[in-house]
Design brief:
Blueprint lengths: L1 E2 L34 E6 L21 E8 L2 E6 L8 H17 L7
């Protein structure tokens, strides 16, 4: 999944993150979603995102969003499609998990 560094949520992450995808939800953002406070954090930028194992229908993931941040009232909502805590996934996904905990509850976080 390609990572977009537009929020403190992705601090400490690289350009790409390996994710476990198994019947995970993939989101499609409608026109004007960004204007309403939705930030695309991670998405599948290829029709062949497979790095290991096997895949069936991976072309349908192209341009699908796997992670996003949404302004919700006075807070933030983080949506993750892939299984961030599956077996060895947490090592690569710890930044999203812990940054989400700290950034989401911060009193003086940046306003976007």
């Amino acid at each position: 999944m390609k990572i977009e560094h537009v929020t403190p949520l992705t601090a400490g992450m690289g350009t790409y993150a390996p994710v476990m995808f198994s019947r995970s939800p993939t989101f499609r953002l409608g026109a004007g979603a960004e204007a309403q406070g939705v930030k695309k954090i991670g998405w599948y930028d290829s029709d062949k995102p497979l790095r290991s194992g096997w895949a069936w229908g991976q072309q349908y993931l192209k341009d699908g969003v796997g992670a996003m941040e949404v302004n919700f009232g006075e807070g933030k909502l983080f949506l993750f499609g892939p299984e961030l805590t599956f077996r060895s996934q947490p090592h690569g996904m710890f930044p999203l998990v812990f940054n989400g905990i700290y950034y989401g509850t911060a009193k003086n976080r940046p306003v976007s």
